[in-house]
Structures are given as C-alpha cells and as structure tokens.
## 1
Amino acid sequence: MFDKFKQLGELKKMRDQAMEMQKALAQEKIEVEEQGIKIVMTGDQRVETLEINGEEQNSLKDVFNKVIKKSQEVAARKLQEMSGGLGGLLGQ
C-alpha cells in the first residue's frame, strides 16, 4: 500500500517537473526568416508571428497553430496507447 503512495508521489513530482519544463519552453522564442517569410515560434511549438513580405498573416498563423495542436494530440494519444496509460505505473 505504501508503495502505491510512493509511486503517486513520484508521479506528482514528474508531473510538476513536466509543467515547469512546459513553462520554460513557452518562454523560448525561435525565429527563422528566409525568402521574405518570417516565423517566430515558442519552444512549446506555438506560432507567435507569421509574416510574408513584412505583412502579418494571422489567419495562416491560426491554422498552423491548430494543426500543430492536433498533431501533438495524436502523438500524445499514440504514446499513451504504447505505454498502456498510467495503469502500469500504479500497479493496476
């Protein structure tokens, strides 16, 4: 029984570390500018700025953010399927 409490504590610690990492990544800025196209993206893969020939392309930026989010959801779902969720960690 105490083993499960210890595992839950470790799981919470891992979750807290992941949340801190996510916050840190959100603060990072990556910028690429080539051939009249400028994209600024955060480390957590969110497009902040998309410009073509100096003009902001907000609708294109929004579509990019939607497709990136969907791809992240698919990846998370696949990882969860592969790992069997958290049941194995909790001994269930």
## 2
Amino acid sequence: MPDLSVTAWAVLGVAAVFAGFAKTAIGGAGVVAAALAALVLPARGSSGTILPLLIAGDFVAVAVYRRSANWSLIARLMPWVLGGIALGVVFLDRVRGNRALRVSIGVLIVVVLVAHAVVGAWLKQRLTTGTTRITPAQRLAAGLAGVGVGFATMVANSAGAIMTVYLLLSGVTMLEFLGTGAWFFLIVNLLKLPFSLRLGLMDAGSLRLDLALLPGLAIGCLIGVAVIRRLSPRHFERVALGMAGVSAVFLLT
C-alpha cells in the first residue's frame, strides 16, 4: 500500500464518498473523485487505482436500480464506447502528462455541455426511447457520446458528465437514468480492467488501498440514495448538469 500522509488519506476518503454518491445519485460527481485521487496519488496510476473502487460502487448501484435500465440505449451506445476505450488505451500509452489528460477530458465535457445548451430542446423532441425507428440524429448522438464516454472513462474515469448529458437528452425518466447508468458503467468498468492491468495502472498495493476506502464508498452510496429520493425530476436534471459543469472546472484548473 502507498505510504500516505494523514492529509492524503483524508482526501482519498472524501474521494471515496464522492465516488459512492456518483454511483447512486449524480454521475457527474465521479470526476470529482477522480480529480481528488489525482491530487495525492501518482498522476498516471490514479485512474487505475480507483477503478476497483468504482466497480464496487457499480455493483451497489445495480443492486439498487437494476430494474430500471433502458437496454436499447446501452446497446446503441456500446459499439461506439468500445472504439472510445481503444482510443483511450492508445492515448494513455503515448501521453504521460497528467495535465494533458485532465485538459483533454475537461474540454470534451465543456463541448458536450455547450451542445446541450444550444440544441438540447431540439434533440429532446427527437431522441425518444420508445420509438422503433432509430433516426440519424439518434445515431449521431449515440456515436459522439459513445466515443467520448469510452475515451473519458479509460483515461480518467471521468465519463459520468458526458453520460449524464447523453441520457438527459435521450428523454429518460429519473429512474431509467439511474438504472441505465448503473448497468452501463458496471459493464464498461469491467471491460477496462484488463487494459488497466496491461498499462501497469494497478497492482497489489492499489488493491489494498481500495479495500481501505470501501467504508467511504458505502457512505457515499447511502447519501446518494437518500438525496435522490428528495429530488424532483426537474431539480435532478439541473443538479446533474451543474455537477457536470463542476467536473469540467476541476479538470481544466
């Protein structure tokens, strides 16, 4: 296990709480956890270090929201996500600087948020989940979001904000949002494991660190479940987009 100061442990504890909260409430909060971890852990390995912790949170989220997933949205997105993950692996293999990784994801989130503000109302009328015919707009949205999610999650575990915007534009209900995100990120994070191992982003010491942070993750999951029950769909969308914006600020500063 890494030799960490008391301050570093405190920061990682807060990161674990944010990770749990992201899994059961607002997905964009996950990038706050990733950013905090990068402050106190080796820059290149921080994403791989917290990946098993996020997977533990994914299992909790699936247990809570397992019946609410929209599998057509997941299926539409997954082929593009695999391409994004492949790009992320190449990027991690060639780019060593943490600053470059953070700025790249931050810029990507800002672009997605601007797109939401400019064309959100127009897309919401078309990106419905109950239609049998997939329109070109749906294919384009799925492609852009899928590549962005795959790339962002591979390089920095920071895809929650992008997925948030995509799901909101798809017109899902609040429970569908949570269930779809839970299943989607469980599948994607499990797919990332062999790549993280090959890139040397995980080891036995990082796994022991994850075990020590599990209580913080559990607290965050409980807070998320409690908060989400008190949010109306309208407030949920505002909070979700606001957290996505905060994520971009964290990454760009």
## 3
Amino acid sequence: MKTLYKNPQGEPFELTNSQACLFDAIYRRLKNMLVILTYTQFGKSDVVAMAVLTRITTFPERWCIIGGTEDKAKIIMNKLIGHIFDNEYTKNKLTMKNHESMDRLRHERSRSRLTFNVGDGIGEVFILSGDSSKKGQDAGDTVVGHGAANILVDDAPLLPDTVNAKIVRMLGGFKDYFYGKIGNALNRNHFYRAFNSDRYSKVVIDYHLGIEEGRQTADFFEMAKEEMNDEILFNAFYGCIFPPQDASLGGVWIPLFTENDIEKAQDYEEIEHFGEKKLGVDVADAGEDHDTIIMRSNTYAEILYDNQVSDQMKLAGMVTAKSKENDAGRTYIDRSGVGAGVCSRLRQLGFPHRGINYGEKSPGSLYANKKAELFWELKRWLNQGGKLSKDSRWKQLTNIAYSINETNGKIQIMPKKIAINMGIKSPDIADGLAMTFYDRDKYAITEEDEQERFFKKKMRKKKLKTSEDYSLRMTK
C-alpha cells in the first residue's frame, strides 16, 4: 500500500493502523455486513476509495456507491478517480472508449461509472443518489431497477428507512454480497439499528484514536469542543456516540416528543372519547406523503384513515363518511398546496370545514407560525393526560423537532424540506393530529347538564314573561 497510492502532496500514502483496519474490512470483505463509524474529517473517503479501487482492479466485481445526493456519492468516486493514476497497476487496467481521454478524466473526474479489465472479467464501480427530496416520485426510486453484489452507502444516517429498504433490495439477486454503511453518529434510524445489530461488524474510530495515531492534537479537539459549545454534538461528530433519544439533532433541532411520551399516552386499560370529536386531515403531496384522517376528542386520539396513494376526490368522500360515521364535530384540513383541491371539493359537497395554513401568523408571541403553536398545544395535551390509540404509527411524532429562532426568540418547528434532507419521513399523521388543536376544545354536555340547562331556560322565560306582564299592567 505504501508504494501503491499517493497523498495530495504526491508522497506515498501511509495508512495509520485504524485506516489500515478500515481498508482491510472493505478490500478483503472480512464480513458481508459492515458499519463504518468514524469521527468527522478522519479521511475515510480516501481510504474507502482506495479499498474499492484495489478490489475492482483485482476481482471481476460490480460495486455501487450510494450517497444521500449525487454530489455526496461523487466525493468517494472523485477520490477513486484521482488514485487511479497513482500507479501503473490501476492505470493500465482502466478501460476507456476510443473518444475518451485519460487526461480529461484525471482532471475533470466527472464520471459516474468506471470499468477495469482484470483479465478474467470486468471490475466495475458506479454511483447512485438515494435522494428522497425529489418531487413527484417515491423516496429512493432512483435505486430501483439497479443491482449490485457490493454496495457502500456514504452518509447513511441521512437516508430514511424507506430508501435503505430499497437499497437492500438491490442485493436480493446475490448469495455472496457485501453491504457497508458509512456515517457519523447522528439519526437514530436504520444506521443506528445496524450499529446495534449482531449482523453487522463494526469499524469505530473516534477522536481518541486520532490523537493516539498523531492525526490530530488533543488541543485541536478541545478547541472544536469549545467552538461547538454542545457536548452532545461534539460526541456525535468526534466521539462516535449517538445522541440520547431526547437530545438535539445536529445541535439545532430538538425532538418535541420522545418514545417515552408515546408509551405514556398509550398506557391505559380502557379509554373512550369525551367531548367533541374533531377531525384533522393531512393531504398527501408526493413521494412518501400519505392522506391521513385523525380523530381527537378531549381525551383520546385515533387514526381513522392512512393511505399513501393520494386521491383528492376519494379523500373528500372519506372525510364526509368518517365524520358522519363517528358523529364528529369540526373538521380541519391543510389547505396549502394540493390540500386546496380537497377543500374545494368539500365546499361543493356542502360539508363544513376549516382550511388551515401552517405558515400563517400565530397570535401568540411565543411561536414563529401557526404550526409551532399547534404542535405546542399537542404537546401540552399529551402532558395533561391525552391518550393515543395503541398504534405503532404514532411513533412518527418523534420525528417532530423544534428550535428557538436566534433572531426573534420564537419557537419554530423543523421545516419539511430540512427534515427530508436529514432523512426524516414526512410526518403526515402527526400533522393531522396537530390540526385538531386549531380551535379551543368543546366539552360535550351530559344528559343531566342538558336537563338542568332546559329547566333554567324555562325559568328565565317565566321570569321574563312575569316582568313583561307587570310592565304592561303598570302602563294601564
């Protein structure tokens, strides 16, 4: 290795012990499932690139590198292209079309697929994007239809579980496969579960090893810790320690609900609705979005409808049916974007409802917008004893995160676009529940209350009649 590849200064690339362990785990495929967790700026992209390059110039295999975006996937590919020209062994095995230039490839590094002649076959590497934020398509559709026996996913924690599932499908046609996930200790999704699974072998390289191997000084990491001013964030990026369940994400966004909150809200033997039953309707946009109808009373909330295949006319009909079936009161619908179509259809049907725009201004001084206000009311309701149906889909609430705006000090909820880029699924069920807090709850009147109100009303009428009679007599 010392004579095979070079560093950016053109000198022999000398691997440290931890880098050599990482190289071996990939090049020798020591285990077929691997989690690579290193501190940030460890140099893993270079090591991974060299390991894959050595593998595909030695064995006739197909390797796929997947990133959260195409640009992310290109980071390792660009490193790999650069190392091709470090030695004659890899350079001579590169296959080029007649009209292509090695010099152009070397300088532009713009290829998304490369092949190498290894004598008894072809070694190949290509890149794909697992981008889940594209409009009009399901998350991870860019990987569907591809297959490879060897897959490496860079920045794996930033890809949602649905994309991970579609990547795993790519391995389905191969008995002998290799699946590696690379990332920092961030989201508690499939990457976190893989790290805690016995199926995966682990390569963990924290900043202590960086100091021990002389890659950085202890003073540098002390400086980084002071600059971050956030121990949890420092541990995630440098200590390879996943944040606690209720800790901030990326040092900015803090989960509004925890799994413990959900478990507490589902801890009951019997429960029934009390007070007015209100409906919250979230309309699917694209990709992973779902049409959802949530019903909540003063005491209890349940999921009445959840369908990924969006059909606005069907949803409008479902809203009217569920309202009648459950004797529900007020109905709230997200009217922004495609939701306007559902509101329009309900107006045609003469069905009373309230269109909500999460972005509208909140009358309260604490909240950046109506969305923040409604989710805070939802949190207050749960804290005061509100109960949820025993349904695993409520765990989606743990995807809702908030922060304090540094400019105006107001509470804001993580925007959908940021959540998607962090690999967090669209919280359709959570949104539907939050909408039911748009207006103050009304309590149902019991039969005894109704009778008391009736008699009081009759007494008021009697008094009014007596007063009127007396007035008339006085005028005579």
